């Protein structure tokens, strides 16, 4: 395994006035031209994001903007004398970068959003009235973002975020969503979505989101009771109309819960990966009945099980140019990327083309124009680069933290990496190729 030495990096750390002074530190090192497979090399910029509890990023290819999520919640403790101290301050926000200039273009605070239990706004101190315990946390009641996606089909982007750990105290499950336009400034309470009008939770073990930017429909994955018997709180996909912030449908998946979703925009198909079954499903989103959004059974006929057998914990990514699915199945230390034929007109539609054993892959991204597949290998703190032609390994890109997911700039082909948890830096890689000298 060829790895790149720390000396073979170009380092740049910057931060906008939103977080303090401008340039903090910079250094440049000569690039090792033998860093990976013959001819493949890279440079990297390390850019401070101001994110305290980082999760995913979303890349808007139309506006060339990058959005980072920060979901750090508030915690307080009370001693025997009744004195309250803050043990963690909330910093929930979305940070926007301009991909061309590398500068912060906006910071959208979630601290003005009311908690789902009514105990103030996320930036407020807790009301301890009637509380018998000695600690309070907004981990289950906040709306600050975990997952993130963006839709931009009219020049006014819509940012969609998910809060994975939110939970209805009575139901014992749930999830929170925020849908807002960055052009409006910070999100407001009107941008929140978490329950039907009767108070029933919309979501159940909410995790990831993907968007059909042509129809402005968002598709949310839900674990639900994924270890339970079929029919007992099955995993499902929630379809939300973004302009109106309303639920169109909830679609139950027969087995295994739902961890990942990927959209084929042209055909309006949604591919679904499960957390506990070795199965892959596809939803025909163009045929959905939206007459009863709460029903799990109404659209059972829209769900098809594909022939591919994929490892559990499957997070699919769809490449429209290659008409393939690249499915990251997280496992530490050795996860798998399964390549599946996603051309419905192909005789081998839905079948496995190849399988790549990699590190603990959390998500993948595809640069079809350059023929490159990128895997964000979480615990290994690196991104691994493969050829989409023969799936050979080309390069390993060491990251500042635990690489979570990736965005690719369609103009420069630079690779932006979101790092998990306390790594408040994004790694921006430029991958190059030159014919090796004979």
Overall shape: it is: globular
Distance between the termini: 23 Å
Mean pLDDT: 91
Could you give the order of strands across the largest sheet?
3-33-32-31
Number of helices: 0
Question: What proportion strand?
Answer: 35-45%
Low-confidence stretches: 1-34
For the report, how would you describe the main beta sheet? Answer: 4 strands, antiparallel
Structural class: mainly beta
Rg computed from alpha carbons, rounded to a whole number of angstroms: 22 Å
User: How many runs of DSSP E, i.e. beta strands?
Assistant: 33
Helix content: under 10%
Characteristic terms for this protein:
globular, 438 residues, mainly beta, four-stranded antiparallel β-sheet
Topology:
Layout: E1 11-14, E2 23-27, E3 40-48, E4 54-60, E5 65-70, E6 75-78, E7 84-88, E8 93-98, E9 104-109, E10 135-137, E11 147-151, E12 158-163, E13 176-180, E14 192-193, E15 206-212, E16 217-222, E17 236-241, E18 246-252, E19 260-264, E20 269-273, E21 280-284, E22 303-305, E23 314-319, E24 324-329, E25 336-341, E26 352-357, E27 361-367, E28 372-377, E29 382-387, E30 393-398, E31 403-408, E32 415-419, E33 425-433
Antiparallel strand pairs: 1-2, 3-33, 4-5, 5-8, 6-7, 6-10, 8-9, 11-12, 12-13, 13-14, 15-16, 16-17, 17-18, 19-20, 20-21, 21-22, 23-24, 24-25, 25-26, 27-28, 28-29, 29-30, 31-32, 32-33
